User: Fold this.
Amino acid sequence: MSMNVIQASGLAKRYGSTWALRECTLAIPSGHVAALVGPNGAGKTTLLNLAVGLAEPSAGDVTVLGGLPAGSPAALDGIAFVAQDTPMYKNLSAADMLHLTANLNRRFDRRYAQARLGELGIPLNWKAGKLSGGQQAQLALTLALARRPRLLVLDEPVAMLDPVARHDFMGTVLAAVADDGVSVVLSSHVLAELERVADYLIVLSQGRVQMAGEVDGLLASHRMLTGPAAEAASYAEQPVVHLRRGGAQAHLLVRATAGDPVPPGWEAHPVGLEELTLAYLREPAAAALPGPARGRDIQPSEVTR
Amino acid sequence: MTTLTMAGCPKHDVGLRPVPWRRMVWVTWRQHRAALAGVTVFLGAIAVYLWLTGLQIHHSYATACHPASSLACNINFTGRYAVTVNVVRVFLQAAPALIGAFAGAPVLARELETGTFRFAWTQGIGRWRWTLGKLVLLAVTVAAAAAAFSMLFSWYLRPFSSAGYAIPFATDVFDLREVAFVAWTLAAFAIGALAGMLIRRVVPAIAATLAVYAGLGLATALYLRQHYMTPLLTSKLNLPGSAWIVSQWYTTGGKFAFPARGSQIVSAVSRLCPPRIGNSSISPAQCLTQHGYTPWASYQPGSRFWPFQWIEGGWLLALSVLLIAVTVWLVRRRAA
Assistant:
């Protein structure tokens, strides 16, 4: 049983004369914790706003939860969204926020919400504005999860949090994934955190999708080759994503599987998610897309320039 | 545990029942009770003052004003309270605008300014239902408070009206009476809500609401209200005090001569009846009628007070509904 929690085709959004998102075509399958990464201004927030129905596309379209129009009543019912900086009514107590969310939704698991806030030690009678940043984020996440969504969308959920709060927040997300099978799409700058939680990765750059796919597949299809720097420029057997020189050694991130032959004098290593993501972020022209949407592979000569 | 809707079953969502409207009652009350309390305290404090002074005023009128033209009435009633009622009338002109600005403008502006709309508009109820529910509930509440207040004010004013002092059509009385006051309060609220949606910031939205309200109020009082019904014409000069004289002019030989105010009438009078010793007591009107001029007046009789109240209430209600509809439409389609 597979469906796409977010599917966009030719999606574009313009604010004034600036394109925040262009020709965005992607499909995020359900059952994943999908991470949306990219530099500032890459269009992450715009894409999420379009998916949750807060913004209207300038061109193209976006559907959610297997074909529902973004922002439609059924889509709103099935998606819970925690926006950047977790906006909250600062003068309402946690209990009021809970009651408010319950009133604004068809489904709300009050027992889950109360139990979760109890575990977190968030006093129900405290005003949301008086809670710490970590507690506010946890409150927002708890309210979102208590709606029992089929898709949880998080925009930069941990950007403002300290490492402990960050870890706890992601722990709550992962527990919900394990318990309910909720699909998650989150945008983040914090690459180290993604390694732990994400099993699907989308790299956005300058308003376009640069790389998308399951993390296992992406890791299996990339190798880090280390060898003499002098030979790096002529290396052309496999598509090179990124070249990094360190003294006499060159490190090439190439698209290759474990079975691919390694040239003499070179060593192949598996790559980590952070390393892979960084390589793509540094090479906005490189692309690795599944299926027919695959972009052109970069030539080594371009990399070394 | 609630049963989880499993991924991949969109048929589960077919025929989805929306979140009931009545849920918005608690949401609106909880989020806007401070504003509603502000309106209640504001109108309530004035109401207590009007009630206490109103009792004295009614007592003075009942004891001194038989008849209303008596000297006792002039001294103990009109003389004592005329200034008070004038101050109250002027002060209350601002009441609907203040209610509209402080209760209406922040409803959307605060959400947009603080970013909480991203929370509110992604809940299951949907943003246009959220907006419509809130605005209608707040508008009805504010209008009900204004209705209760305007009835008290009309009671307060009754002795002055009976004494022929505060005529019903007076610009600063008409819009404080029952129907008009409610309608103006409602319009101010609707202007505030739309301004908040367009401007997206609380303080500028409040300022814009006050400015637009003042402009609309002035335009209505100065230009619009007199045209609600075709004025009556008369050439008699002794109109009852309750009539609202829209304009006056003179004719001669069946043709328009000049308006009753301005430089033309002054030069005509000084030409026809030059100031002379022994002739100084003649009034311009007497002078002109002696020389074959006929005075005319177009006026709205006092009996049209209630039709005028309902006409003003009607178009302001229509305007308020339109403004709220535009606000909801903007929320529905305007992207974040």
Observations:
- The beta strands of chain B are 232-234, 244-252, 255-259, 293-300.
